[in-house]
UniProtKB/TrEMBL annotation:
Residues 1-141 form the CYTH domain. InterPro entries: Adenylyl_cyclase_CyaB, CYTH-like_dom_sf, CYTH_domain. This is CYTH domain-containing protein. Gene3D superfamilies: Hypothetical Protein Pfu-838710-001. It comes from the Bacteria. Signal peptide: none annotated. CDD domains: CYTH-like_AC_IV-like.
Length: 174
């Protein structure tokens, strides 16, 4: 699958929630993402209360909106332990990201209001491009939501939470 995404750092999540008139609240998710050491390719296992999945994605590290290609594979409770153990043994664990995510949906866009342990507060948009035709409508929707939430006034994040957390831990270890 393909999406357009952007991540920005915010101090006060209420500022964003007050602008969130477009979007349906879908719940609060508690997620633990375990990332493995693979360089440019991102492979993680996401754990939630009732489910887990393997996610592989590819995207350029740059600030602002960017395209991402990803694959999601649901894991059963048995396959979760097998896959996580195998990936941990083969590649090693890079970092675990623990976050609370308020999820909103607007058309084809997932709006994530995230509080990430050790990092702070973020807003992430993921506009899913459901086919390779008509990408302009997805870009337009993505830009519309960025404007409605006034995301241009916040610091855009180039990488992933895993990269931010990994870097923070490297710096603090010196």
């Amino acid at each position: 699958m393909k999406n357009l995404e952007i991540k920005v750092e915010v101090e006060n999540l209420d500022d964003i929630k007050n602008h969130l008139v477009a979007g349906t609240y879908r719940g609060t998710l508690e997620q633990v993402d375990t990332y493995f050491l693979l360089g440019e390719t991102k492979i993680k296992i996401r754990e939630e209360k009732m489910a887990s999945e393997l996610i592989v994605y590819f995207r350029k590290i740059r600030k602002g909106s960017r395209e991402s290609r990803y694959y999601r594979v649901p894991l059963t409770s048995h396959s979760f332990f097998v896959v996580k153990s195998a990936l941990s043994f083969i590649f090693g664990i890079k970092v675990k990201v623990v976050k609370k995510r308020d999820l909103y949906i607007y058309k084809n866009t997932r709006i994530h209001i995230d509080t990430v342990n050790e990092l702070g507060n973020f807003v992430e948009l993921e506009t899913v491009c459901k086919n390779s035709y008509g990408n302009k409508e997805y870009y337009n929707e993505h830009e519309e939501i960025k404007q409605k939430l006034s995301l241009g006034g916040y610091r855009a994040i180039a990488g992933s939470y895993s990269g931010l957390l990994y870097q923070k831990r490297l710096v603090s270890s010196f």
